[in-house]
């Protein structure tokens, strides 16, 4: 039994056998590898601000992300525009906006301003079956705000329920208003009186 214990101790010590140390050349990086890591891709001429549809967009962002900064263009519409843009120019929608050529930026602006001319699906437009013209259009920036204002004005003039609720600045879509949606800026509730001693 004593011999078995000695054998077990010998086996345990052999399990912890010292592995050969790595050569110093393997551990220390060579000068060539250090310089390769430090060398970065040269920075190309990137325009930091690109003007598209009277908006200054970030040139470091991808085309899709940059287009979402335009009022009236969400992520879904930006992706649809990027797909059409890629078909028209061959430039990917994931490229940085500042790296695009001027011709590509002009083409992108045309697509943003008149998406219906480039067969963007009707379901992604924000002004389908317009009340006055009956056309499917996509409005951005000032046109979008003007259209919203005229729609609310029209609803108020015909005295529809929605129009009246908008003019009274109350919730339009059936929300409760017992405790919320009171006139802006007024404090509601119990106020404590100052105790005079």
UniProtKB/TrEMBL annotation:
User: Which terms under GO biological process does the entry name?
Assistant: translation
What does the UniProt keyword field contain? Ribonucleoprotein, Ribosomal protein, RNA-binding, rRNA-binding
Q: Which SUPFAM superfamilies match?
A: S13-like H2TH domain
Report whether RNA-binding shows up as a keyword of the record: yes
- Protein purpose: Located at the top of the head of the 30S subunit, it contacts several helices of the 16S rRNA. In the 70S ribosome it contacts the 23S rRNA (bridge B1a) and protein L5 of the 50S subunit (bridge B1b), connecting the 2 subunits; these bridges are implicated in subunit movement.
Entry similarity comment: Belongs to the universal ribosomal protein uS13 family.
Q: What is the official name of this protein in its record? A: Small ribosomal subunit protein uS13
Organism, by scientific name, is Candidatus Iainarchaeum sp
Source taxonomy lineage?
Answer: Archaea, Candidatus Iainarchaeota, Candidatus Iainarchaeia, Candidatus Iainarchaeales, Candidatus Iainarchaeaceae
In the UniProt record, the gene name given for this protein reads rpsM
């Amino acid at each position: 039994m004593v011999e078995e214990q000695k054998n077990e101790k010998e086996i345990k010590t052999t399990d912890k056998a010292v592995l050969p140390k790595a050569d110093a050349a393997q551990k220390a990086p060579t000068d060539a590898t250090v310089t390769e890591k430090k060398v970065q891709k040269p920075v190309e001429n990137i325009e930091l601000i690109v003007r598209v549809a009277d908006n200054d967009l970030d040139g470091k962002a991808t085309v899709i992300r940059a287009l979402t900064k335009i009022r009236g263009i969400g992520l879904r519409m930006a992706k649809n525009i990027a797909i059409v843009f890629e078909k028209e120019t061959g430039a990917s929608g994931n490229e940085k906006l500042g790296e695009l050529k001027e011709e590509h930026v002009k083409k992108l602006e045309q697509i943003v301003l008149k998406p219906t001319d480039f067969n963007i699906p009707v379901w992604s437009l924000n002004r389908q079956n317009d009340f006055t013209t009956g056309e499917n259009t996509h409005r951005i920036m000032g046109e979008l705000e003007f259209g919203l204002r005229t729609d609310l004005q029209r609803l108020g003039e015909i005295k529809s329920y929605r129009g009246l609720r908008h003019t009274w600045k109350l919730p339009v879509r059936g929300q409760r208003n017992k405790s919320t949606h009171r006139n802006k800026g007024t404090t509601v509730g119990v106020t404590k009186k100052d105790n005079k001693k």
